[in-house]
Write a structure and sequence with these properties.
single chain; alpha+beta; Methyltransferase, Cobalt-precorrin-4 Transmethylase, Domain 2; 2 domains; 6-stranded antiparallel beta sheet; globular
Length: 379
């Protein structure tokens, strides 16, 4: 959500399938209306974030009505607490937040109902006039009435969304990989290890040892056994390859993961990297497969995993990564304050490699981990 997007919706002077206007915040005796509106928006058929824009008077030509002094105003935590108290099916609740926007002396709030694959959201116990087991949605600019359920085709669409049936094959694969317990090993999978998704066996993932790949990265030296084995991780829908990732076996086979991606930061006017780092971005295919292969069912695997992750940056989004790079570029001159208590593993000499370069990359990775914590604390 951004300010220009909300302003564009206001200028349309009409409500729609994923946005609604309220002149003021919901009164205390209108909690059922608030919950009902949130559920309808969470189950919107546009498959995207939805907005309840508070502080726009649609009966007065969609003019602003500032919420600065509104006694019923809520922040994100209050709204989350309100949702948490309700009995949703499976304990799965809509994800909501409140964003405030300034327009000169006017301030409006936007209740953001974040898009989710967990649809349909519905109650198992009634809350005032909001009925249990009724599935509410929003069609065009109208919500399902509280005493009714949505039409069957719309309910089917919401269930299809939950099971990934509205998504592309790669998007469905990423949904299914988030449930590793539902994957089975194919018989006769040696030397290629192949697994399939139990409910849709046309989705498969295989690992193939790639003997042509050989190389060392700084994070390998944090393992007891520093020698890697490199693999290809191939994701298929029927016979069509959806993606191919580089994988590696760490610490003598105790831990397996897709290799992280690489980015860097330039501290000068030139475009070369002065600092490089390895990273994952949450909800990327690399990170989802990384989580898929980590079972955490043995001490050796857990130790190898933890040592690996101490060297890798994990970002919420690509935007956060780019903002962090800017932060590092502006604060790298303060590097000495992050140098304390950094433990360095033993770096044995490897023919053909400049060990001092690998040491520096490892050292920088530990500084960047500390800087990322500080970056998030001051955002």
């Amino acid at each position: 959500m951004n300010k220009s997007e909300i302003l564009d919706l206001i200028l349309l002077k009409q409500e729609g399938s994923y946005w609604d206007f309220k002149r003021e915040w919901y009164f205390q005796d209108k909690k059922a209306d608030l919950l009902h509106d949130i559920i309808c928006m969470a189950n919107n058929l546009s498959n995207r974030d939805a907005y309840i824009i508070v502080g726009v008077d649609e009966e007065n030509d969609y003019s602003f009505s500032s919420v600065k002094s509104d006694p019923n105003r809520k922040n994100t935590q209050q709204l989350v607490d309100f949702i948490r108290e309700k009995h949703f099916a499976g304990g799965i609740r809509p994800i909501v937040s409140v964003e405030s926007l300034d327009f000169g002396e006017i301030e409006i709030d936007v209740i953001v109902i974040h898009n989710s694959d967990a649809t349909p959201f519905y109650l198992t116990e009634n809350f005032q006039s909001v009925m249990p087991n009724n599935i509410y949605t929003r069609v065009m600019d109208s919500n399902t009435p509280k005493n009714k359920s949505a039409d069957l085709p719309h309910i089917e669409t919401l269930w299809k969304k939950r099971f990934g049936l509205l998504s592309s094959p790669l998007e469905r694969m990423m949904i299914y990989l988030k449930n590793p317990d539902l994957w089975k090993n194919s018989p006769n999978d040696y030397p290629t290890k192949k697994q399939y998704y139990r409910f849709f066996p046309e989705f498969t993932i295989e690992t193939v040892h790639n003997e042509s790949k050989n190389g060392y990265q700084y994070y390998l030296f944090n393992q007891t056994d520093i020698h890697p084995r490199w693999y290809d991780i191939n994701l298929y829908y029927h016979q069509t390859m959806l993606a191919s990732l580089e994988g590696l076996s760490l610490d003598g086979g105790r831990y397996f993961t897709p290799s992280p991606k690489t980015d860097g930061i330039s501290l000068t006017q030139y475009h070369h990297w002065d600092i490089s780092f390895k990273y994952y971005i949450k909800d990327s295919i690399e990170y989802i497969v990384h989580k898929f292969y980590y079972n955490s069912d043995g001490d050796d695997e857990t130790i190898a995993h933890d040592r690996f992750m101490k060297c890798i940056l994990v970002f919420e989004t690509n935007t956060e990564k780019e903002e962090f790079k800017h932060f590092v570029a502006n604060n790298w001159g303060n590097k000495p304050k992050y140098n304390k208590n950094i433990w360095m593993p033993y770096f044995r000499k490897i023919e053909g490699y400049n060990i001092e370069v690998l040491k520096e990359e490892f050292f920088n990775s530990q500084i960047l981990q500390k800087m990322l914590v500080e970056f998030r604390n001051i955002k």
